[in-house]
Backbone:
């Protein structure tokens, strides 16, 4: 069992607004070793340059990233150790099916353990604290009392979770310090352009509808999407049978995730490509949930660290989760540069190392695992390449190679989750392609498949699947919702998440300007004159994480090259969203010149 | 450090300020490097057998009567005479769903009848089906009893499973259901996974343990009351 050094349970009330750093105004902390309680009501935190307890302590909080965000807002040094009760509860309890309905909040956690805790007017108090001052003396007292109530609740939760905690809990807490730091830093953003797009979102939407659907075959004259019209549109073009459906009503879908696979199988059909672009952009313009703080920095609505079962972050309102062209809003501040450093085919590399499948290791070493599989299946010639500069084939044959590579890429990634051929069909492959690519995957990477089944079997026997760093899920093959694919997927995804975590800790603790964690990448920001040093240092951290967690098996890193940095006054440009970005800018320009009167029926 | 409570005027005093200055003289930073911390966690995980390429974990729990899970490599004992047995069964509940569509809740109550009771007059009408029970073991050494329905007409689920069981007597296999094809597929191991370790206990003892209260050994079993409508 873990021994905590001077545990201090702490809770803040703070003014909060999407995209902004918190503005803490009330705090309660209890030193569990001595029983001393520190209460700071509204107005009393100002001028306090550090927490009012001994320097060697362990911060205990529920959703500690919020508390740590308050530390940073106050300019306090981050605590040497952190225990986040929410993360621990999520890992130990929420990952089992029986308690999912309780949610991941403090009340749910207490209810799970049968702990009664009276907290009157909780929602009202949360709202009051979140809006910020000014407060009446009665409200100040009420907020201080409410804050103290939460500390009592968290102390109770700590007591029941304590027997389950171990050294890995402190490691997860250490990561929370980094999460708070990254969130506090925020992402440099082109706020004026965001404002222009948002203020014209409705008009832009109508322009795009008119551009792609001039005859109102999908959207009615008022610009409203009509499923009946769209069904008829697809039927007329012979696309109705191949178009993905909604799960319940079985109607043609417009969901961007469902449509992603259509790109692969119908890359040569411009109708489909245009429709997908249209739906993705309309969806974004309808719900432009990107948040920018008063400091002009973009921040996610929720960082949600360890939010997935595999321990990955599940960030909400994240710029990297939107259409690709939106990334062009990322723009370094004057005198600064940004770089997007990502690991090459991370999951493939992790799977290759873990399974020690010689073919998978060779595939990864080839630099293009997906083309490797296509070649092994003899679907493309042995000298096929994805590099336009290196190919010796005519453009039309080269494009064909890219399409086949993409099909094998879909298979490669899905196969890591032990996907069936039916799942591959849902991703857009035909039945024959799905069967063929999967068959080849099993044949070429047989050792990998043995390793996966080995791990699932072992997890079932142990009743848990766990990473080297202690992140775990409960496994019960007898449970009704047991899914062996999900367990198989855990080892690669959670292993990859551990790599990200360690590299992130190493980077943030040495003060590098990491301002976002993307699935397999970091966004780094630094003054131009310091950029080379920071890029080198981040690469070193990423390599060090591989050294420790993959026993020296180094994954390739991309984005470190100087010509890939984005230097002020340039903006980030994703090749896949470049065309759309240009068109959006043109439309915006037209709108602003009032040369266009948006009207679908026009 | 003193206990702090909110004063009436809502302002904290000099005493606390002085204490804070003292507290922040040298902010404590993590003394252990993240790399050392991870190495230590990794060593602890390795000591528990996590992430190792091979494992000797053996689950010493009660033997179960069940089908193999799709991810399990399994063998069936090659000695059919001593480690397989065909027994009559009595089924209560809806058994009409296709084999692979059944959920736990759908599973009907199934009672296995001791051979000595086959001629019992109360069972003559109900014990009209049979199942074969075979001793099987997973690659991790977990023994279980694999039940297999016997039917005198064609059924793609049952027929494919029969083939799989026969194959598993010779080699390691995985049985994977294919709802689209309406049958069990089989994956055969490409390389040798070694010989299985069989339980030393007598098969009859294992079978009785596995079936538990579903095994009807004499007419005092509650099944008889159920058949007469008394339960």
Residues:
């Amino acid at each position: 069992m873990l021994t905590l050094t001077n545990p201090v349970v702490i809770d803040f009330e703070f003014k909060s607004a999407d995209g902004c750093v918190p503005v803490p105004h009330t705090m309660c902390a209890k030193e569990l070793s001595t029983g001393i309680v520190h209460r700071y009501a509204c107005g009393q935190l100002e001028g306090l340059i550090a927490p009012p307890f001994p320097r060697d302590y362990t911060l205990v909080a529920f959703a500690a990233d919020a508390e740590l965000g308050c530390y940073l807002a106050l300019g306090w040094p981050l605590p040497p150790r952190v225990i986040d009760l929410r993360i621990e509860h999520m890992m130990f309890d929420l990952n089992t099916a029986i308690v999912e309905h309780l949610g991941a909040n403090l009340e749910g956690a207490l209810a799970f353990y049968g702990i009664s805790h009276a907290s009157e007017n909780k929602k009202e108090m949360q709202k009051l604290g979140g809006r910020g001052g000014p407060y009446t003396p009665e409200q100040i007292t009420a907020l201080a009392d409410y804050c103290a109530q939460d500390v009592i609740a968290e102390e109770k939760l700590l007591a029941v979770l304590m027997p389950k905690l171990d050294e890995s809990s402190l490691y997860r807490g250490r990561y929370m310090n980094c999460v708070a730091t990254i969130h506090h830093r925020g992402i440099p953003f082109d706020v004026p352009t965001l404002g222009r797009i948002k203020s014209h979102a409705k008009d832009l939407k109508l322009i795009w509808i008119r551009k792609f659907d001039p005859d109102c075959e999908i959207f009615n004259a008022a610009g409203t999407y009509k499923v009946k019209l769209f069904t008829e549109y697809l039927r007329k073009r012979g696309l109705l049978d191949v178009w993905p459906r909604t799960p319940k009503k079985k109607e043609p879908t417009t969901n961007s995730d469902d449509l992603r696979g259509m790109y692969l199988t119908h890359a040569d059909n411009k109708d489909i490509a245009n429709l997908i672009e249209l739906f993705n952009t309309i969806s974004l313009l309808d719900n432009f949930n990107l948040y920018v703080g008063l400091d002009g920095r973009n921040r996610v609505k929720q960082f949600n660290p360890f939010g997935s079962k595999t321990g990955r972050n599940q960030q909400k309102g994240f710029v990297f989760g939107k259409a690709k062209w939106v990334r062009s809003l990322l723009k370094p501040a004057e005198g600064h540069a940004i770089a997007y450093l990502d690991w090459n085919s991370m999951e493939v590399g992790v799977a290759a190392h873990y399974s020690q499948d010689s073919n998978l290791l060779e595939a990864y070493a080839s630099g293009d695992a997906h083309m490797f599989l296509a070649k092994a299946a003899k679907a493309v010639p042995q000298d096929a390449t994805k590099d336009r500069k290196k190919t010796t084939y005519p453009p039309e044959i080269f494009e064909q190679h890219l399409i086949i590579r993409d099909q094998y890429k879909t298979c490669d990634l899905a196969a890591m989750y032990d996907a069936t051929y039916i799942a591959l069909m849902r991703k857009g492959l035909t039945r024959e392609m799905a069967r063929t690519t999967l068959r080849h995957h099993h044949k070429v990477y047989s050792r990998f498949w043995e390793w996966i089944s080995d791990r699932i079997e072992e997890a079932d026997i142990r009743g848990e699947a766990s990473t080297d760093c202690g992140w775990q899920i409960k496994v019960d093959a007898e449970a009704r919702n047991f899914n062996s694919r999900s367990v198989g997927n855990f080892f690669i995804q959670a292993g990859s998440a551990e790599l990200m975590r360690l590299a992130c800790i190493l980077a943030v603790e040495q003060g590098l300007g990491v301002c976002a964690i993307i699935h397999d990448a970091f966004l780094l920001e630094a003054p131009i004159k310091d950029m080379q040093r920071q890029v080198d240092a981040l690469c070193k951290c990423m390599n060090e994480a591989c050294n420790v967690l993959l026993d020296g098996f180094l994954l390739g890193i991309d984005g470190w090259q100087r010509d890939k940095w984005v230097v002020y006054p340039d903006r980030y440009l994703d090749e896949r969203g470049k065309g759309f970005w240009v068109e959006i800018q043109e439309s915006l320009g037209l709108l602003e010149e009032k040369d266009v009167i948006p009207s679908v029926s026009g | 450090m003193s206990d702090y409570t909110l004063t009436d005027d809502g302002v904290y005093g000099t005493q606390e300020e002085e204490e804070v200055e003292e507290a922040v003289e040298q902010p404590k930073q993590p003394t252990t490097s993240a790399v050392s911390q991870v190495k230590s966690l990794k060593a602890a995980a390795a000591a528990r057998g996590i992430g190792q390429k091979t494992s000797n974990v053996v689950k010493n729990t009660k033997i179960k009567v069940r089908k193999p899970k799709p991810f399990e490599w399994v063998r069936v004992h090659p000695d059919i005479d001593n480690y397989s047995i065909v027994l009559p069964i009595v089924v209560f509940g809806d058994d009409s769903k296709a084999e692979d569509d059944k959920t736990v809740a759908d599973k009907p109550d199934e009672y296995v009848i001791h051979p000595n009771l086959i001629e019992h007059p109360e069972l003559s009408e109900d014990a009209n089906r049979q199942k074969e029970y075979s001793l099987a073991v997973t690659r991790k050494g977990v023994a279980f009893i694999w039940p297999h329905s016997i039917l005198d007409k064609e059924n793609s689920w049952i027929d494919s499973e029969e083939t799989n069981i026969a194959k598993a007597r010779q080699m390691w296999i995985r049985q994977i259901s294919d709802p689209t094809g309406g049958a069990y597929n089989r994956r055969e191991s490409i390389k040798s996974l070694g010989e299985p370790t069989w339980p030393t206990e007598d098969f009859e003892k294992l079978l009785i343990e596995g079936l538990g209260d579903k095994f009807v050994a004499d007419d005092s079993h509650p099944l008889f009351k159920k058949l007469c409508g008394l339960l």
